[in-house]
Amino acid sequence: MNKKIVLLGSGELGKEFVIAAQRIGQTVIAVDSYENAPAMQVAHGFEVINMLDGAELDRIIAKHNPDFIVPEIEAIRTERFYDYEKQGITVVPSAKAANFTMNRKAIRDLAAKELGLKTANYRYATSYEELKSGVEAVGMPCVVKPLMSSSGKGQSTIKSEDDIEKAWNYAVEGSRGDIVEVIVEAFVKFNSEITLLTVTQNNNLPTLFCAPIGHRQERGDYQESWQPARVSDKDIAEAQDMARKVTEALGGAGLFGVEFFLADDGVYFSELSPRPHDTGMVTLANTQNFNEFELHLRAILSLPIFEITQERAGASAVILASENSDHPTFTGIENVAGQPKTDFRLFGKPTSRPYRRMGVVLNYDNLDTPIEEIVERAKKIATLVTVNK
Ligand SMILES: Nc1ncnc2c1ncn2[C@@H]1O[C@H](COP(=O)(O)OP(=O)(O)O)[C@@H](O)[C@H]1O
Ligand SMILES: [Mg+2]
User: Fold this and answer.
1) Above 70 in pLDDT, residue 207?
2) Which CATH architecture has domain 4-91?
3) Which of 130, 219, 314, 350 could anchor a disulfide with 125, C-beta 3.0 to 4.6 Å?
4) pLDDT number for residue 157
Protein backbone atom coordinates (compact mmCIF):
# COMPACT_ATOMS: atom_id res chain seq x y z
CA MET A 1 0.00 0.00 0.00
CA ASN A 2 2.26 2.76 -1.25
CA LYS A 3 0.03 5.27 -2.94
CA LYS A 4 1.11 8.36 -4.81
CA ILE A 5 -0.69 11.54 -3.88
CA VAL A 6 -0.56 14.89 -5.65
CA LEU A 7 -1.49 17.56 -3.12
CA LEU A 8 -2.88 20.73 -4.73
CA GLY A 9 -2.16 23.54 -2.30
CA SER A 10 0.71 23.37 0.17
CA GLY A 11 -0.23 25.47 3.19
CA GLU A 12 -0.23 24.51 6.86
CA LEU A 13 -3.21 22.18 6.49
CA GLY A 14 -1.49 20.40 3.62
CA LYS A 15 1.68 20.15 5.67
CA GLU A 16 -0.05 18.27 8.49
CA PHE A 17 -1.71 16.03 5.90
CA VAL A 18 1.66 15.22 4.32
CA ILE A 19 3.15 14.44 7.74
CA ALA A 20 0.25 12.04 8.41
CA ALA A 21 0.84 10.40 5.01
CA GLN A 22 4.61 10.15 5.58
CA ARG A 23 4.02 8.37 8.87
CA ILE A 24 2.33 5.50 7.08
CA GLY A 25 4.64 5.37 4.10
CA GLN A 26 2.73 7.15 1.33
CA THR A 27 4.34 9.30 -1.35
CA VAL A 28 3.30 12.93 -1.75
CA ILE A 29 4.09 15.56 -4.38
CA ALA A 30 3.16 18.99 -3.02
CA VAL A 31 2.01 21.71 -5.41
CA ASP A 32 1.55 25.44 -4.94
CA SER A 33 2.17 28.75 -6.67
CA TYR A 34 5.35 29.53 -4.76
CA GLU A 35 8.46 27.66 -3.73
CA ASN A 36 9.17 26.39 -0.21
CA ALA A 37 5.48 26.40 0.77
CA PRO A 38 4.87 24.63 4.12
CA ALA A 39 3.74 21.25 2.73
CA MET A 40 6.61 21.18 0.19
CA GLN A 41 9.07 21.19 3.08
CA VAL A 42 7.94 17.72 4.18
CA ALA A 43 6.90 16.12 0.83
CA HIS A 44 8.85 13.80 -1.50
CA GLY A 45 8.71 16.28 -4.34
CA PHE A 46 7.11 19.54 -5.33
CA GLU A 47 5.80 21.51 -8.31
CA VAL A 48 5.34 25.26 -8.59
CA ILE A 49 2.49 26.10 -10.99
CA ASN A 50 -0.55 28.34 -11.34
CA MET A 51 -3.28 25.88 -10.33
CA LEU A 52 -5.97 27.94 -12.08
CA ASP A 53 -4.22 27.12 -15.37
CA GLY A 54 -5.79 23.92 -16.74
CA ALA A 55 -2.89 23.14 -19.08
CA GLU A 56 -0.38 23.42 -16.23
CA LEU A 57 -2.52 21.11 -14.10
CA ASP A 58 -2.77 18.59 -16.95
CA ARG A 59 1.01 18.69 -17.36
CA ILE A 60 1.87 17.84 -13.77
CA ILE A 61 -0.89 15.23 -13.41
CA ALA A 62 0.42 13.48 -16.55
CA LYS A 63 4.00 13.78 -15.27
CA HIS A 64 3.30 12.21 -11.85
CA ASN A 65 0.33 9.98 -12.71
CA PRO A 66 -0.87 9.80 -9.09
CA ASP A 67 -3.38 7.44 -7.48
CA PHE A 68 -4.98 10.38 -5.68
CA ILE A 69 -5.39 14.11 -6.21
CA VAL A 70 -5.96 15.85 -2.88
CA PRO A 71 -7.02 19.49 -3.18
CA GLU A 72 -6.05 21.67 -0.23
CA ILE A 73 -7.49 24.96 -1.52
CA GLU A 74 -10.41 26.14 -3.65
CA ALA A 75 -8.55 28.23 -6.23
CA ILE A 76 -7.88 25.39 -8.70
CA ARG A 77 -9.17 24.79 -12.24
CA THR A 78 -11.45 22.13 -10.73
CA GLU A 79 -13.36 21.60 -14.00
CA ARG A 80 -10.36 19.48 -15.04
CA PHE A 81 -11.03 17.09 -12.16
CA TYR A 82 -13.88 15.35 -13.98
CA ASP A 83 -11.41 14.26 -16.69
CA TYR A 84 -8.86 13.05 -14.17
CA GLU A 85 -11.58 10.98 -12.53
CA LYS A 86 -12.40 9.43 -15.93
CA GLN A 87 -8.71 8.60 -16.34
CA GLY A 88 -8.97 6.48 -13.18
CA ILE A 89 -7.38 8.92 -10.73
CA THR A 90 -9.32 9.38 -7.49
CA VAL A 91 -10.02 13.05 -6.85
CA VAL A 92 -10.55 13.58 -3.13
CA PRO A 93 -13.22 13.40 -1.97
CA SER A 94 -14.72 13.59 -5.49
CA ALA A 95 -14.44 15.81 -8.56
CA LYS A 96 -17.98 17.00 -7.88
CA ALA A 97 -17.21 17.96 -4.27
CA ALA A 98 -14.13 19.97 -5.24
CA ASN A 99 -15.84 21.59 -8.21
CA PHE A 100 -19.07 22.47 -6.39
CA THR A 101 -17.34 24.05 -3.40
CA MET A 102 -15.04 26.30 -5.43
CA ASN A 103 -18.13 28.36 -6.30
CA ARG A 104 -20.57 29.35 -3.55
CA LYS A 105 -23.49 29.14 -5.99
CA ALA A 106 -23.17 25.44 -6.79
CA ILE A 107 -22.93 24.33 -3.18
CA ARG A 108 -25.62 26.73 -1.93
CA ASP A 109 -28.15 25.69 -4.58
CA LEU A 110 -27.40 22.03 -3.90
CA ALA A 111 -27.91 22.51 -0.15
CA ALA A 112 -30.92 24.83 -0.21
CA LYS A 113 -32.81 23.89 -3.38
CA GLU A 114 -31.93 20.26 -4.06
CA LEU A 115 -31.56 18.98 -0.51
CA GLY A 116 -33.89 21.43 1.22
CA LEU A 117 -31.42 22.33 4.00
CA LYS A 118 -32.15 25.43 6.03
CA THR A 119 -29.89 28.32 4.96
CA ALA A 120 -30.04 32.09 5.20
CA ASN A 121 -32.37 33.56 2.59
CA TYR A 122 -30.19 34.45 -0.43
CA ARG A 123 -30.03 35.92 -3.94
CA TYR A 124 -27.31 36.25 -6.58
CA ALA A 125 -26.23 39.41 -8.39
CA THR A 126 -23.99 40.15 -11.38
CA SER A 127 -24.33 43.94 -11.23
CA TYR A 128 -24.92 46.78 -8.81
CA GLU A 129 -28.57 47.00 -9.94
CA GLU A 130 -29.12 43.30 -9.33
CA LEU A 131 -27.50 43.61 -5.94
CA LYS A 132 -29.93 46.40 -5.05
CA SER A 133 -32.94 44.21 -5.80
CA GLY A 134 -31.25 41.28 -4.04
CA VAL A 135 -30.86 43.36 -0.90
CA GLU A 136 -34.52 44.32 -1.14
CA ALA A 137 -35.49 40.64 -1.38
CA VAL A 138 -33.45 39.32 1.57
CA GLY A 139 -33.70 42.44 3.75
CA MET A 140 -31.12 44.30 5.82
CA PRO A 141 -28.75 43.64 7.45
CA CYS A 142 -27.30 41.24 4.90
CA VAL A 143 -23.92 39.85 3.89
CA VAL A 144 -22.38 40.13 0.41
CA LYS A 145 -19.71 37.66 -0.76
CA PRO A 146 -18.10 37.08 -4.14
CA LEU A 147 -19.08 33.62 -5.43
CA MET A 148 -15.42 32.82 -5.92
CA SER A 149 -13.57 33.86 -2.81
CA SER A 150 -12.43 32.55 0.54
CA SER A 151 -11.10 33.82 3.88
CA GLY A 152 -13.60 36.67 3.89
CA LYS A 153 -12.11 38.30 0.79
CA GLY A 154 -14.49 40.81 -0.74
CA GLN A 155 -17.06 40.09 1.97
CA SER A 156 -18.98 42.87 3.72
CA THR A 157 -22.19 43.53 5.62
CA ILE A 158 -24.87 45.92 4.35
CA LYS A 159 -26.73 47.77 7.08
CA SER A 160 -28.26 50.62 5.09
CA GLU A 161 -28.88 51.65 1.43
CA ASP A 162 -25.65 53.66 1.49
CA ASP A 163 -23.59 50.50 1.96
CA ILE A 164 -24.79 48.76 -1.22
CA GLU A 165 -22.49 50.44 -3.70
CA LYS A 166 -19.47 50.05 -1.42
CA ALA A 167 -20.30 46.38 -0.93
CA TRP A 168 -20.53 45.81 -4.68
CA ASN A 169 -17.18 47.48 -5.40
CA TYR A 170 -15.49 45.68 -2.54
CA ALA A 171 -16.81 42.31 -3.75
CA VAL A 172 -15.59 42.95 -7.29
CA GLU A 173 -12.10 43.73 -5.95
CA GLY A 174 -12.02 40.62 -3.73
CA SER A 175 -13.32 38.22 -6.37
CA ARG A 176 -11.09 35.48 -7.71
CA GLY A 177 -11.55 33.82 -11.07
CA ASP A 178 -13.06 34.98 -14.27
CA ILE A 179 -16.66 35.72 -13.28
CA VAL A 180 -17.81 38.54 -11.04
CA GLU A 181 -20.96 37.44 -9.32
CA VAL A 182 -21.95 37.76 -5.68
CA ILE A 183 -24.28 36.09 -3.26
CA VAL A 184 -26.23 38.34 -0.91
CA GLU A 185 -27.68 36.60 2.10
CA ALA A 186 -29.71 37.65 5.12
CA PHE A 187 -27.58 38.22 8.20
CA VAL A 188 -28.16 35.34 10.60
CA LYS A 189 -28.20 36.53 14.22
CA PHE A 190 -26.53 33.37 15.45
CA ASN A 191 -25.64 32.59 19.04
CA SER A 192 -22.61 30.61 17.92
CA GLU A 193 -21.11 28.98 14.87
CA ILE A 194 -19.60 25.53 14.57
CA THR A 195 -17.66 23.32 12.22
CA LEU A 196 -18.84 19.75 12.16
CA LEU A 197 -16.00 17.57 10.86
CA THR A 198 -17.72 14.79 8.94
CA VAL A 199 -15.93 11.71 7.60
CA THR A 200 -17.39 9.71 4.73
CA GLN A 201 -15.96 6.24 4.15
CA ASN A 202 -15.71 3.77 1.29
CA ASN A 203 -17.03 0.21 1.31
CA ASN A 204 -20.39 1.14 2.82
CA LEU A 205 -18.81 2.00 6.16
CA PRO A 206 -20.78 4.58 8.12
CA THR A 207 -20.31 8.33 8.00
CA LEU A 208 -18.69 9.49 11.24
CA PHE A 209 -18.83 12.83 13.04
CA CYS A 210 -16.30 14.55 15.26
CA ALA A 211 -17.47 16.49 18.28
CA PRO A 212 -18.50 20.00 17.18
CA ILE A 213 -15.82 22.67 16.96
CA GLY A 214 -16.68 26.21 18.02
CA HIS A 215 -14.86 29.17 16.51
CA ARG A 216 -14.64 32.93 16.40
CA GLN A 217 -14.06 34.80 13.14
CA GLU A 218 -12.44 38.18 12.57
CA ARG A 219 -11.60 39.83 9.24
CA GLY A 220 -12.77 36.64 7.52
CA ASP A 221 -10.41 34.27 9.29
CA TYR A 222 -10.75 32.21 12.41
CA GLN A 223 -8.98 33.46 15.54
CA GLU A 224 -9.73 30.74 18.08
CA SER A 225 -11.38 27.34 17.78
CA TRP A 226 -12.33 24.86 20.48
CA GLN A 227 -13.59 21.31 20.84
CA PRO A 228 -16.01 20.16 22.09
CA ALA A 229 -18.28 23.17 21.57
CA ARG A 230 -21.33 23.24 23.80
CA VAL A 231 -24.28 22.40 21.55
CA SER A 232 -27.71 21.03 22.48
CA ASP A 233 -28.51 17.43 21.52
CA LYS A 234 -31.28 18.69 19.26
CA ASP A 235 -28.97 21.07 17.36
CA ILE A 236 -26.29 18.39 17.02
CA ALA A 237 -28.80 15.94 15.60
CA GLU A 238 -30.00 18.56 13.08
CA ALA A 239 -26.46 19.49 12.06
CA GLN A 240 -25.42 15.85 11.66
CA ASP A 241 -28.47 15.13 9.55
CA MET A 242 -27.68 18.06 7.24
CA ALA A 243 -23.98 17.19 7.09
CA ARG A 244 -24.79 13.61 6.16
CA LYS A 245 -27.11 14.71 3.37
CA VAL A 246 -24.77 17.24 1.80
CA THR A 247 -21.63 15.08 2.00
CA GLU A 248 -23.48 12.09 0.53
CA ALA A 249 -24.73 14.24 -2.35
CA LEU A 250 -21.16 15.34 -3.10
CA GLY A 251 -19.83 11.78 -2.99
CA GLY A 252 -16.47 10.17 -2.30
CA ALA A 253 -14.56 9.41 0.86
CA GLY A 254 -12.75 11.92 3.02
CA LEU A 255 -13.15 14.47 5.77
CA PHE A 256 -15.37 17.52 5.26
CA GLY A 257 -15.62 20.64 7.44
CA VAL A 258 -19.31 21.52 7.45
CA GLU A 259 -20.10 25.01 8.79
CA PHE A 260 -23.30 25.84 10.66
CA PHE A 261 -24.82 28.82 12.46
CA LEU A 262 -26.74 28.02 15.65
CA ALA A 263 -29.57 30.51 16.14
CA ASP A 264 -32.70 30.78 18.30
CA ASP A 265 -34.77 29.46 15.42
CA GLY A 266 -32.56 26.44 14.76
CA VAL A 267 -29.51 25.36 12.79
CA TYR A 268 -28.49 27.00 9.51
CA PHE A 269 -26.21 25.32 6.98
CA SER A 270 -23.60 27.87 5.83
CA GLU A 271 -20.90 26.27 3.66
CA LEU A 272 -18.40 23.44 3.66
CA SER A 273 -14.85 22.46 2.84
CA PRO A 274 -14.42 19.01 1.25
CA ARG A 275 -11.10 18.71 3.13
CA PRO A 276 -9.62 19.45 6.57
CA HIS A 277 -10.84 22.77 7.93
CA ASP A 278 -8.62 25.44 9.47
CA THR A 279 -10.72 25.51 12.66
CA GLY A 280 -10.05 21.75 12.87
CA MET A 281 -6.41 22.47 13.73
CA VAL A 282 -7.67 22.21 17.31
CA THR A 283 -7.50 18.43 16.80
CA LEU A 284 -3.70 18.82 16.73
CA ALA A 285 -4.05 19.19 20.52
CA ASN A 286 -4.85 15.44 20.50
CA THR A 287 -8.45 16.16 21.38
CA GLN A 288 -9.41 13.01 19.43
CA ASN A 289 -7.97 9.53 18.83
CA PHE A 290 -7.14 10.72 15.29
CA ASN A 291 -6.64 14.33 14.22
CA GLU A 292 -8.53 15.68 11.20
CA PHE A 293 -5.58 15.09 8.85
CA GLU A 294 -5.20 11.46 9.88
CA LEU A 295 -8.95 10.97 9.45
CA HIS A 296 -8.85 12.48 5.95
CA LEU A 297 -5.95 10.23 4.98
CA ARG A 298 -7.50 7.05 6.37
CA ALA A 299 -10.80 7.71 4.64
CA ILE A 300 -9.00 8.37 1.33
CA LEU A 301 -6.94 5.18 1.56
CA SER A 302 -10.09 3.16 2.44
CA LEU A 303 -8.64 2.27 5.83
CA PRO A 304 -11.67 1.60 8.02
CA ILE A 305 -12.19 4.07 10.86
CA PHE A 306 -13.83 2.15 13.65
CA GLU A 307 -14.77 5.18 15.72
CA ILE A 308 -13.79 8.73 16.55
CA THR A 309 -13.37 9.27 20.27
CA GLN A 310 -13.04 12.55 22.16
CA GLU A 311 -9.96 12.17 24.35
CA ARG A 312 -9.73 15.63 25.87
CA ALA A 313 -10.92 19.20 25.47
CA GLY A 314 -8.77 21.66 23.56
CA ALA A 315 -8.46 25.05 21.94
CA SER A 316 -6.34 26.61 19.22
CA ALA A 317 -5.41 30.29 18.89
CA VAL A 318 -3.71 31.66 15.80
CA ILE A 319 -0.31 33.36 15.65
CA LEU A 320 -0.54 36.18 13.10
CA ALA A 321 2.14 38.28 11.47
CA SER A 322 1.78 42.05 11.61
CA GLU A 323 4.21 43.12 8.89
CA ASN A 324 5.58 42.25 5.47
CA SER A 325 8.79 40.28 5.60
CA ASP A 326 10.78 37.83 3.47
CA HIS A 327 12.57 36.41 6.49
CA PRO A 328 10.08 36.36 9.36
CA THR A 329 11.35 35.26 12.77
CA PHE A 330 9.60 34.57 16.07
CA THR A 331 10.28 35.72 19.61
CA GLY A 332 8.67 34.39 22.76
CA ILE A 333 8.35 30.76 21.70
CA GLU A 334 10.19 29.73 24.90
CA ASN A 335 7.42 31.36 26.89
CA VAL A 336 4.82 29.35 25.01
CA ALA A 337 6.78 26.12 25.39
CA GLY A 338 7.08 26.70 29.13
CA GLN A 339 3.31 26.68 29.72
CA PRO A 340 1.51 23.60 31.02
CA LYS A 341 -0.82 21.59 28.74
CA THR A 342 0.38 23.62 25.77
CA ASP A 343 1.76 22.87 22.34
CA PHE A 344 2.31 24.91 19.19
CA ARG A 345 3.02 24.75 15.46
CA LEU A 346 5.07 27.19 13.39
CA PHE A 347 4.22 26.64 9.76
CA GLY A 348 7.56 27.63 8.21
CA LYS A 349 6.02 30.10 5.75
CA PRO A 350 8.88 31.79 3.91
CA THR A 351 7.28 35.25 3.92
CA SER A 352 4.85 37.21 6.05
CA ARG A 353 2.30 39.97 5.53
CA PRO A 354 -0.10 41.67 7.94
CA TYR A 355 -2.55 39.15 9.42
CA ARG A 356 -0.96 36.16 7.66
CA ARG A 357 -1.35 33.05 9.83
CA MET A 358 2.15 31.90 10.75
CA GLY A 359 1.48 29.41 13.52
CA VAL A 360 -0.99 28.19 16.08
CA VAL A 361 -0.98 27.71 19.85
CA LEU A 362 -2.75 24.67 21.27
CA ASN A 363 -3.99 24.22 24.82
CA TYR A 364 -5.83 21.26 26.28
CA ASP A 365 -7.21 19.75 29.45
CA ASN A 366 -9.45 16.95 30.63
CA LEU A 367 -13.03 16.85 29.40
CA ASP A 368 -14.43 18.23 32.70
CA THR A 369 -12.63 21.55 32.30
CA PRO A 370 -14.92 24.40 31.17
CA ILE A 371 -14.05 24.94 27.51
CA GLU A 372 -14.08 28.75 27.93
CA GLU A 373 -11.15 28.44 30.31
CA ILE A 374 -9.10 26.50 27.78
CA VAL A 375 -9.93 29.03 25.05
CA GLU A 376 -8.85 31.91 27.29
CA ARG A 377 -5.58 30.14 28.07
CA ALA A 378 -4.82 29.45 24.39
CA LYS A 379 -5.60 33.06 23.50
CA LYS A 380 -3.41 34.47 26.25
CA ILE A 381 -0.52 32.16 25.47
CA ALA A 382 -0.67 33.11 21.77
CA THR A 383 0.00 36.74 22.77
CA LEU A 384 3.39 35.64 24.18
CA VAL A 385 4.72 35.14 20.63
CA THR A 386 5.58 37.92 18.21
CA VAL A 387 6.39 37.59 14.55
CA ASN A 388 9.25 39.91 13.57
CA LYS A 389 10.28 41.16 10.17
N1 LIG B 1 -25.35 35.18 6.50
C2 LIG B 1 -24.47 35.40 7.50
N3 LIG B 1 -24.91 35.85 8.70
C4 LIG B 1 -24.05 36.10 9.70
N5 LIG B 1 -22.73 35.92 9.62
C6 LIG B 1 -22.22 35.44 8.46
C7 LIG B 1 -23.07 35.16 7.34
N8 LIG B 1 -22.29 34.71 6.34
C9 LIG B 1 -21.03 34.71 6.81
N10 LIG B 1 -20.96 35.15 8.07
C11 LIG B 1 -19.74 35.27 8.91
O12 LIG B 1 -18.61 35.36 8.07
C13 LIG B 1 -17.77 34.21 8.19
C14 LIG B 1 -17.18 33.82 6.84
O15 LIG B 1 -18.23 33.51 5.95
P16 LIG B 1 -18.18 32.21 5.03
O17 LIG B 1 -19.44 32.15 4.27
O18 LIG B 1 -17.86 31.04 5.87
O19 LIG B 1 -17.02 32.58 4.01
P20 LIG B 1 -15.51 32.03 3.84
O21 LIG B 1 -15.61 31.15 2.64
O22 LIG B 1 -14.71 33.25 3.61
O23 LIG B 1 -15.16 31.27 5.08
C24 LIG B 1 -18.66 33.15 8.81
O25 LIG B 1 -17.91 32.16 9.50
C26 LIG B 1 -19.54 34.00 9.73
O27 LIG B 1 -18.85 34.34 10.92
MG1 LIG C 1 -16.25 29.71 6.06
Assistant:
1) yes
2) 3-Layer(aba) Sandwich (3.40)
3) 130
4) 96
